[in-house]
Amino acid sequence: MRYHYDKDAIYIRGEFRAASTGIGGGLKNVSTIFNHTVSKDFDHADPLAYVQDMSLRKGYGTDVFGLLTAVLMQNLCVLQYDYITVFVTAGVSNPNPNPTNPHTINIIVTSDESMSDAALLETVMIATEAKAHALRNLDCDFTGTTSDAVVVASISDIEPKHVYAGTFTEAGRRVYDAVLMGVTASLDRHEGRVVRMSPSYFIFSRYGGDHWIEWQKKSCPYYPCHFEGQICDFCYCPFYPCHDEELGEFLDSSSGGKIWACTTCSLLHKPKLTAYLKQYPDATLDELKAYQNE
User: Fold this and answer.
1) What three-state secondary structure class fits 264?
2) Prediction pTM value
3) pLDDT digit string (tens) for 68-111?
4) What is the pLDDT of residues 49-65, one digit of tens each?
5) How much helix, strand and coil, in percent to the nearest 5, is found in the chain?
6) Whole-number Å distance between alpha carbons of 234 and 4
7) Which of 79, 59, 66, 111 lies closest to 281, judged by CA?
8) How would CATH label the architecture of 2-216?
9) Residue 139: is it exposed, middle or buried by C-beta count within 10 angstroms (0-12/13-18/19+)?
């Protein structure tokens, strides 16, 4: 799974089995999922054609699930909890059929471990429950807006690793926690309680007790973690977990099992490679490794 964003959209790329409640939704295999900011007065006669045309213009084909929102991408929150990554844009000025300033809550959940179709659908339910929980915590008297949407996607596999995804499962618990945090954090940004000029990144940490950490490039206490002059735009690597043994390795996790560790990898901290990936966001890892030797 790979993702990148520009000022108007977040794009998630991979070979997915996915479920969507949004435009052209359902269950199908897709290679692209995106969430795109449109104007508040957006009124396209055929939203599905708009989504497919946008994907084609990016060169991504029509095997796509696309979501639309009036929320700015600077208020996007990206949350990584082991193999689960959640993308949230949230605005709640649209809780009724006659909004004066429409927004929506869009949630995209991706899993780097495969899920059955039933687990994908159950994850839609889990994400919706977590969204309602976040709104209740913020003293909202509604459980969503009139145009909310959820996309859930996992890597494709013949034998899915996760057959179920309720909150009694490890996958479901991770999704619930990440969506609860993501909806809250995105609303904080959209409503001005927290100000960020670009998307926010959160990582679930177990050091010093389980908790969420927002990584910010400014005033990072670990800089420089690799070398002076390193570039930190891809601190949380879009290739993770790459499983490339030239760059990282599996280590024992404090909570049991194995986790992919790449603390010694400095590939995307190199100015030359950072600039290349920004120019060509769909570049492969092998392409970047070859380019560094040119």
Assistant:
1) coil
2) 0.89
3) 999 999 999 999 998 999 999 999 865 544 454 457 999 999 99
4) 999 999 999 999 999 99
5) 25, 30, 45
6) 10
7) 59
8) 4-Layer Sandwich (3.60)
9) exposed
